[in-house]
TrEMBL record:
Protein name: Heavy-metal-associated domain-containing protein
Entry-linked PROSITE patterns: HMA_1, HMA_2
Domain HMA intervals: 1-63
Taxonomy, superkingdom: Bacteria
One Pfam family hit: HMA
SUPFAM superfamilies in UniProt: HMA, heavy metal-associated domain
Entry keyword Zinc: no
Organism listed in the record: Methylobacterium adhaesivum
InterPro entries: Heavy-metal-associated_CS, HMA_dom, HMA_dom_sf
Classification via Gene3D superfamilies: 3.30.70.100
Keywords: Metal-binding
Lineage: Bacteria, Pseudomonadati, Pseudomonadota, Alphaproteobacteria, Hyphomicrobiales
C-alpha cells in the first residue's frame, strides 16, 4: 500500500483530480482518499514517486509517507 500526504486537496473536486492523476499512472490502481487527513492510499505495484510526481503535476503538494506511518 502506497500512502501520500497531499496538500491543497480540500474538496470533492480536488479528490477527483487527485484520483485522475493517480489513475493516469496506473489505471488499475485502487485509490482511497481521506480528504480530512489529506492522505491518499493507493493499492498498486507502481512506484510511490511516480504517483507523487503525477499528483504534483495536477497542482497539489504530495509526499510519500513511510509504510510505518
Amino acid at each position: 500500500m502506497i500512502r501520500l500526504k497531499v496538500t491543497r486537496m480540500n474538496c470533492g473536486g480536488c479528490a477527483r483530480s487527485v484520483t485522475r492523476a493517480v489513475l493516469g499512472v496506473d489505471p488499475n490502481a485502487t485509490v482511497d482518499i481521506d480528504l480530512g487527513g489529506g492522505i491518499v492510499s493507493i493499492a498498486s505495484a507502481s512506484d510511490a514517486t511516480r504517483f507523487a510526481d503525477a499528483v504534483r503535476s495536477a497542482g497539489y503538494g504530495a509526499e510519500p509517507l513511510s509504510t510505518a506511518a
